[in-house]
Design brief:
- The structure is a homodimer.
- Chain A is of the alpha+beta class.
- Chain A folds into two domains: 146 residues, 60s Ribosomal Protein L30, Chain: A, CATH 3.30.1330; 175 residues, Alpha-Beta Complex (Phosphoribosyl-aminoimidazole Synthetase, Chain A, domain 2).
- Helices cover 33% and strands 24% of the residues of chain A.
- The first copy, chain A, is built from ten helices and 13 strands.
- In chain A, the strands form two sheets. A seven-stranded mixed sheet of chain A has the order 8-10-7-11-9-12-13, sandwiched between helices. In chain A, strands 1-2-3-6-4-5 form a six-stranded mixed sheet, covered by helices on one side.
- In chain A, α4 crosses α5 and α4 packs across α8.
- Chain A starts with 14 loop residues before the first helix and ends in an 11-residue tail after the last strand.
- At the A-B interface, α1, β3, β4, α3 and β5 of A face α1, β3, β4, α3 and β5 of B.
Chain lengths: 347, 347
Amino acid sequence: MFENKENRTDLSTLGEFGFIEHIAKSVSLKNASSLKGIGDDAAIIDNGNKMTVVSTDMLVEGVHFDLAFHPLKHLGYKAVTVNLSDIYAMNATPHQITVSIAMSNRFSLEAIEELYVGIFMACERHEVDLVGGDTTSSTSGLIISITAIGTADKEDVVYRNTAGVNDLVCVSGDLGGAYIGLQLLEREKKIFVENPKIQPDLEGNDYILERQLKPEARKDVIAKLKEQKIKPTAMIDISDGLSSDLLHICKQSDVGSAIYEEKLPIDVETFNAATEFNLDPLICALNGGEDYELLFTIKQEDYEKIKSIKEVSVIGHITEKNAGVSLVDKSGSIHPIKAQGWDALLE
Amino acid sequence: MFENKENRTDLSTLGEFGFIEHIAKSVSLKNASSLKGIGDDAAIIDNGNKMTVVSTDMLVEGVHFDLAFHPLKHLGYKAVTVNLSDIYAMNATPHQITVSIAMSNRFSLEAIEELYVGIFMACERHEVDLVGGDTTSSTSGLIISITAIGTADKEDVVYRNTAGVNDLVCVSGDLGGAYIGLQLLEREKKIFVENPKIQPDLEGNDYILERQLKPEARKDVIAKLKEQKIKPTAMIDISDGLSSDLLHICKQSDVGSAIYEEKLPIDVETFNAATEFNLDPLICALNGGEDYELLFTIKQEDYEKIKSIKEVSVIGHITEKNAGVSLVDKSGSIHPIKAQGWDALLE
């Protein structure tokens, strides 16, 4: 199955995507019902008319969250949201989740209740049922593994690998906020650790803090696309950053893309905070990650219809593969886009 | 949702089942498709004719396994098996799994490949597809979270809470082996740690070691029950121990039970090893856990049919609730059965 090697290969040399590709190469789907396996936001299981859509994510303390500034209630909410986001990114509707939790004995019942309050809030908002899970001890820290299950009609499912040349590239909401929110929280934590008497200065940054601590999955955008009878030609949710996720669509669809700096949606609060941190807001928008917005492509003929959805920006178009994937800056210069998003295994 | 408390309640005061009950009380299922939520081996999602059956389990290094004696290949195999066992325990057929893994950077690519070789072996054996997952870093140790997805016709699903008075209590395979296997591995590890020159003495114990390191999910028993046209009236897989899992069936079905010491299936290797450890083989069979055998009840009229399945032992019967849950020993004395199985949160 795998080549026999005498060597020891560091996982970090492959990175998360390299590792997933490496494993995926050994998988061949044998059940007729396994319509789509590894390689998209979610797996698709064929039940006849209705497809079951399944996505899973694991959040690890010290890697994905820091309990010094991540309230448990928000964490529960976020853990559910990031999974539902994957279901929406298939143009499907989530209905159930399972929640598995490993926790060390430093957590009290009341603390874990807080976590579940957040989980239930997200369930309520998205009309999703908690139907199962597992609870266990951990030797250190908190680990949350959630699986989301949804449904879609077969003809509604949108994959990553079906973007076509000349399609328009669209993104919901705005970008870079979650990343800047994290920078702010980490700065204030550092100040607090150095001098516990100094209170964190988070004022006026509600929006970017919420982007980091309590992101939303874009149920509303999926609903509006349906209302307008727009079926995206390809779709992904932005968890790793616009650059990285656009590259996923292009690589898997075997196409190129040009997106335009002046079209990228950046909130004024994100812009100001980035400037304060001496960070380029454009770089934050491209590479920040964790925005959980939808990145999708549509047919050119849907342009008028998409303009009526105020939550969506058209940021570029799909090109032939040999044109590459690039950003056109405000002066008209062309910059190739590289994946610089968050790579879990390199943390 | 939860009562507001000033106190700090230790999770260990509730135990795993207490905690699950506590959370389950706050859940009310809202989607019509959520047929069965928390409280059985797996959740049941209604898709019309076919039910989707979903189960999830998390394995944590230092809690569920010790890499000092658990080869990664076996561990991958076991992680899949324990999930599939839950699907079989609903009288359903597993078709897909997702695998999420958090690992520290002490693991090489080659090590994780070994883990996946075991995962793929179990998939192959049970004709199951790996369709998705998540890979991430951990700050320490290895955590494996697997979700198994299967299907069943609506009329075939067997729950825990439907055992009836006078039904026969049956168990597949034999009991206590996995627990004794673990005792043996822990003893040899201790000797090795104290004196690395002494080689582990595992000879003649292949069966109990395999019960611990590489358990099987009873696909074969489910198939034979179908062949014989026996539909169990209630079923659970034995992960926590016969006592604990029989109590689950009885509590949820609102019945009592009497099982007979002389009927309990104990392999001769388990018996001998238990004696060597000065442990009572009966106690190992009752409370050992991790055997992943099926515990189920059938109608009395199926007695002749069940006798033809050599992998199954009839160990007792279901009684009225007020008779309690008890073991009848070889002398005819009656002992109330208490849950003394493995409780994840008390570890």
